[in-house]
Amino acid sequence: MKLPHESGIEVEVKCTCPVWFQTNNLSADIVQPDDIGAHINVGRTYNNMNMSTEAEEAYMKALHLFPPIIPGRSYTARIAPNHLNVYLNLATLMVKNDSRLHEADKMLQTAVSMRPDYVQGYINRGDIMVKLGRMKEAIEIYKTALKYEPDNADVYYNLGVVSLELKDPNAARVYFETALQHDPDHWQSLYNSAIMIQEHGNANDWPELERRLQHLEKKNPTDPKIYFTMGMLDMDRKDYISAEKHIKKCLQYEPTFRSALFNLALMLVNNLNKPLEALPYLNTLLQNYPDHTKGMMLLGDINVNVQKDLISADKHFKRVVELEPDNIQANHNLCVVMVERGDLFGAEKCLTKVYNMAPNENFTKLAFVEKDI
């Protein structure tokens, strides 16, 4: 799970100097060997050059210059907050390797023990707990951060994300809304709260959902997820013309957006009566996601009902059955293909098999494929 705040202090800098020039001149940054800030700057430079080993060595040199840790003693007056970033930067390097997550956590524990108000240390510790699957511990750590920065929107957002992981959408919604109270432009909270409103399906909330989506669009007009969600809202409103426009705009920015490809094709077939226009979207979907069974089912439906291409339909339905042997609809649709071919004996055997699989089902036609969101 990717959290929205920056998990480190590193700043990406594009450097046009050749690597040999940069590395040979790093020593110029260190005027005095006991300059903590200079070692941190060298580490940051190495990190920006993707030289993680050298960056870690530089950060460790800075770390060794810190005063010794005395249990129970606060270092608030002696350690500059920006110097504590060496712990943060080391932890950021370590978490790239899952086997070092506990080591990274110890780094951050040390940092917050030296300065209990070091909020970024708590945030990054919470992120590590999430990676370790220790969600309840992550919540407690994020809540500790809020004791020092009760208006930190990123922390409320992270609490919302963890609440979703714990299957508590009500708590998640409260955290997202609280984040927005402190930062009305907090993009991730705006987006996730919009998704939750759309999925809730309450028509009374649609005006607020539309307002949030429009706000997101102004902030980031090239984000495909915004237009997809707009399209899904349009579909809920049964405004299929507008939905088609928004989902196509989504695909302009991300041509392989899985759910956009499928739902646009589904809408073209079911709601706009333009099944042949769905074909290029389904072909793109299956080229990029070859095991997308709902896409294969919809394509097979078009093969049978519109194109009368029984060979292709048979291929698609058989592939679904290979992937999902218990898929009743795919097995039934294979029987329909046999009927269309005039193979009544084979169809009878096929339908008997389907009946034994689902004796309470009443199949009369190819069923529409449900939404895949």
Automatic annotation (TrEMBL):
Source lineage: Eukaryota, Metazoa, Spiralia, Lophotrochozoa, Mollusca
TPR repeats (start-end): 36-69, 119-152, 153-186, 224-257
Single GO biological process annotation from the record: protein O-linked glycosylation via mannose
GO cellular component, one term: endoplasmic reticulum
Source organism superkingdom: Eukaryota
Keywords per UniProt: TPR repeat
Protein name: Uncharacterized protein
Single GO term (MF): mannosyltransferase activity
Organism whose genome encodes this protein: Mytilus galloprovincialis
Pfam families: TPR_11, TPR_6, TPR_8
InterPro entries linked to this entry: TPR-like_helical_dom_sf, TPR_rpt
